[in-house]
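Design request, tokens follow.
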């Protein structure tokens, strides 16, 4: 993993935070549920796992089963969301996430996740993390990451221009969405390192946040 070796200083007006893989490690349950799904549909589970991170379930299904009607994908997605919400075994906080979120109190930030609100609430709760006041969940958008809609909506809800936001992400779809929104991206973890974010850290213990007089945020990354 190629982490940012020399600490990098970024300034922003707001931070937009992905959840799975960024604040919460939910890989165990994601693997369980999507590998079962792959088996039901006769797909190679390893290939399925290369697609699903960062996207809404129905968007992943549309890529993996391109000839299947979207209505079936949406129905399947609803069932899987219920399964995921009920299964929090192994869901834990990314190292440094509690301290990182605590440091953002009073600073502009939002959760931007492909999970719906019920799933986000379950996973953040299982990891012992409080949901940010501002959140953009699956119900809030018409298009899944890698479409930038979620990040653009998060910026708008915070009243901040997209170019003044920094995104924290772990997946290819999320990093692509952040870039498409015109934002800088801090990659979190080994998965992010594959997709060339602006900077990358092993986990959130490597990020320090300071408020700047006048409303800005200074990030020390690496």
């Amino acid at each position: 993993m190629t982490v940012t070796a020399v600490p990098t200083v970024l300034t922003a007006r707001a931070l937009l935070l992905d959840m799975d893989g960024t604040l919460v490690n939910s890989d165990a349950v994601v693997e369980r549920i999507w590998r079962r799904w792959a088996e039901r549909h006769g797909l190679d589970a390893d290939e399925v796992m290369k697609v699903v991170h960062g996207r809404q379930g129905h968007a992943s299904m549309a890529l993996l089963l391109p000839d299947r009607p979207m209505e079936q994908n949406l129905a399947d997605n609803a069932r899987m969301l219920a399964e995921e919400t009920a299964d929090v075994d192994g869901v834990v906080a990314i190292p440094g996430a509690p301290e990182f979120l605590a440091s953002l109190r009073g600073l502009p930030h939002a959760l931007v996740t492909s999970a719906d609100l019920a799933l986000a609430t379950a996973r953040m709760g299982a990891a012992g993390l409080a949901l940010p006041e501002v959140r953009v969940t699956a119900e809030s958008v018409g298009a899944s990451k890698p479409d930038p809609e979620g990040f653009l909506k998060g910026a708008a809800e915070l009243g901040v221009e997209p170019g003044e936001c920094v995104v924290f992400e772990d997946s290819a779809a999320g990093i692509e969405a952040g870039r498409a929104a015109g934002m800088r991206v801090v990659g979190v973890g080994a998965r992010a390192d594959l997709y060339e974010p602006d900077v990358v850290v092993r986990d959130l213990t490597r990020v320090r946040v300071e408020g700047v007089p006048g409303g800005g945020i200074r990030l020390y990354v690496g």
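Comment from the thread starter after seeing the answer: thanks! The first helix runs from residue 27 to 40.
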